[in-house]
Sequence to fold (330 residues):
Amino acid sequence: MALKVGVIGTGMIGRDHIRRLTEVVSGAEVVAVSDADEVVAKEVAAGLPSAKVHAAGEDLIADSEVEAVIVCSWGPTHEQYVLAAIAAGKPVFCEKPLATTTDACLRIIDAEVASGQRLVQVGFMRRYDAGLVAMRDAIRAGELGEVRLAHMVHRNPTSTTSTTSANLVTGSMIHELDQLRWMLDDDIATIRVSSPVADGFRDPQLAVIQMRSGVLVTVDVFVNARYGYDVRCELVGTKGATASGPVSPVRTYRKGQEQVPVSPDFVVRFSEAYRKELIDWVLAAEGGGAGGASTWDGHLANLAAAAGVESLSTGDTVEIPTTNTPDLYR
Ligand SMILES: NC(=O)c1ccc[n+]([C@@H]2O[C@H](COP(=O)([O-])OP(=O)(O)OC[C@H]3O[C@@H](n4cnc5c(N)ncnc54)[C@H](O)[C@@H]3O)[C@@H](O)[C@H]2O)c1
Fold:
């Protein structure tokens, strides 16, 4: 029997996840959708074999046919839906960010801990990217020795979502903030974010990060880089270095040049990672739980992002507070 899924937020990524669940991933069926824009929700439902439309996300979560929930609405609305799903005891996949304030993240963590089990998976899909997984495995196998440096690049051709200086950290750089913790199995100690643009929309931005183990990291985020979507990572250790870059199976040789295409956007670049992420979630949700990034991971990424936003405005290096990991997330 397919897992019966309800999707809240049928915008860009919501529709993409629905397409994936319907056409690519087996074992799940989208039976209900909801969006603040009911016209959009009805359009999406009309393209599905059998999905009802709920005017309110809370009604979708309460629907007895819905066994698991995907939240793809705007960030500030995530908390209310994730809390409602936890209260209903239903597994929930929440797109990043988990929530937009520290207090909201803590409320979600408290509710999940009180439920006694992991129900929430946060949409940090890079944890499923084959290249990044191989790099993480290389670190764990000791192939690089001790990692000392990491250099990361995150560029979009243009951005419609990260359109404020703060959102460039909380909406875009947040992927690197999670990726670092996951790859290095380490927490972020300090962050300093600067921009060559003094006023207005501060794009690009450069973060210098120190992990608790001492690893030094640079992250360059440029969401209007024009030329394409480009995510890169290099790790430098005492025994070697490893790097992942634009992924393309095709190289073209013409006019005296070797050309490698750059992805147009994250949907293309991370299509395999999104697919594996949803497979993992469906399998975990069928068992009543969650895989991938946890609410705790979502919270720590948010704490680092909040420190990054503070640094961008003050120019200071900002410390990320130390935290005690609840047993549920150890
Ligand atoms: N993991 C990733 O790579 C990735 C990529 C893109 C977006 N995202 C995240 O996914 C979320 C959605 O992003 P998007 O690009 O699809 O945005 P979008 O604007 O295209 O879609 C969001 C949808 O949510 C709806 N909505 C807003 N408030 C709502 C509410 N209270 N209840 C129900 N629906 C509501 C809007 O009407 C809209 O249709 C964001 O949190 C974003 O950060 C993650």
